């Protein structure tokens, strides 16, 4: 794993020397944030050694190196999911690569179903914790002690300090951002209404098919994590609608301006930490 990471990092450093403080993984429909980056260098996932191609529509498959003000960032536009049939190692390879490139902070964004009935489609929510319902964990297997501990603490898996910054930036945009617990499921089916009821009972406010593996790998490796969900739909059974991936992408696009402003201002502040 270390060798593969070193080869991928070398390819990127040879293409464009960088020492990012912040890494950002963009979820379904949230890719337009990339347009806000100054002087971007764009690298296709297909050119990065040991990287997979994305297979999901709405996920582009590009790594972007650039700046927000003076803060160096590396953005991953398009992520890998377990439901694509990839191993957990492959799903979290990009997260580990961001750390290898120097990122200390990881921003995880995603499209999610709203379970909490106080949410509405189009809402942006700061992730305060997660529940791993994937029955998988990227740290299963021999532990790489160079990377992190065998039994990582997950008490503050989503850094409260970063979350407060994001919520303050939302407030500056006149947006009261709520916090919530994200349940990560395997997919690719959306949930049944009964599964949504179960997730609500066990304490989830949001549900999605990503983020949990990356958050675990990032905590293992010592990165601070910040998570933002875009509620693209209320989860199954809450409203009388059929869930479609195209609608979910469209809903994410509608909040793009607000999402971009909050994220840009947050990254500027992360740069000062
Ligand atoms: N369930 C799971 N993943 C999702 C959903 C959902 O309702 N919406 C967007 N991603």
Heteromolecules bound = hypoxanthine
Query: Can you count the beta strands?
Result: 9
CATH level 3 topology: Rossmann fold
Query: What is the percent of helical residues?
Result: 25-40%
Q: Which overall shape is indicated by the principal axes computed on the Cα atoms?
A: globular
Low-confidence segments? none
Radius of gyration: 17 Å
Strand order of the largest sheet: 5-8-7-6-9
CATH architecture field: 3-Layer(aba) Sandwich
Q: How far apart, in Å, are the first and last alpha carbons?
A: 30 Å
Overall mean pLDDT stands at 93
Task: Count helical runs.
Answer: 7
Coarse structural class: alpha/beta
Instruction: Name the beta content range.
Output: 15-25%
Give the tags.
single chain; 273 residues; alpha/beta; Rossmann fold; 9 strands; 31% helix; globular; binds hypoxanthine
Explain this structure to me?
The chain has 273 residues and is an alpha/beta fold. It has a single domain, classed as Nucleoside phosphorylase domain (Rossmann fold). Helix content is 31%, strand content 24%. The chain has a five-stranded mixed barrel with strand order 5-8-7-6-9, surrounded by four helices. α3 (160-172) links the parallel β6 and β7 (178-184). The mean pLDDT is 93. The structure holds hypoxanthine. Hypoxanthine is lined by residues 111-113, 190-191, 207-209, 232-233, 235, 243, 248.
């Amino acid at each position: 794993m270390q060798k593969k990471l070193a080869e991928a990092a070398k390819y990127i450093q040879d293409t464009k020397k960088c020492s990012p403080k912040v890494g950002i993984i963009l979820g379904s429909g949230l890719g337009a944030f990339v347009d806000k980056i100054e002087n971007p260098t764009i690298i296709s996932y297909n050119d990065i050694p040991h990287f997979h191609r994305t297979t999901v529509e709405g996920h582009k498959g590009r790594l972007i190196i650039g700046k927000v003000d003076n803060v160096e960032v590396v953005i991953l536009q398009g992520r890998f999911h377990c439901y694509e049939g990839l191993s957990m190692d492959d799903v979290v390879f990009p997260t580990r690569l961001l750390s290898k490139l120097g990122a200390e902070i990881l921003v995880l964004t995603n499209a999610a179903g709203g379970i909490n009935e106080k949410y509405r489609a189009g809402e942006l929510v700061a992730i305060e914790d997660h529940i791993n319902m994937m029955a998988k964990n990227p740290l299963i297997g021999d532990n790489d002690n160079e990377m992190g501990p065998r039994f990582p603490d997950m008490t503050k898996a989503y850094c409260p300090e970063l979350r407060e910054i994001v919520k303050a930036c939302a407030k500056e945009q006149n947006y009261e951002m709520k916090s919530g617990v994200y349940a990560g499921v395997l997919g690719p089916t959306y949930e049944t209404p009964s599964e949504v009821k179960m997730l609500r009972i066990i304490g989830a406010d949001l549900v999605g098919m990503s983020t949990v593996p990356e958050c675990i790998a990032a905590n293992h490796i010592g990165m601070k994590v910040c998570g933002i969900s875009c509620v693209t739909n209320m989860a199954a059974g809450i409203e009388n609608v059929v869930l479609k991936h195209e609608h979910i992408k469209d809903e994410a696009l509608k909040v793009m301006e607000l999402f971009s402003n909050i994220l840009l201002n947050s990254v500027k502040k992360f740069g000062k930490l």
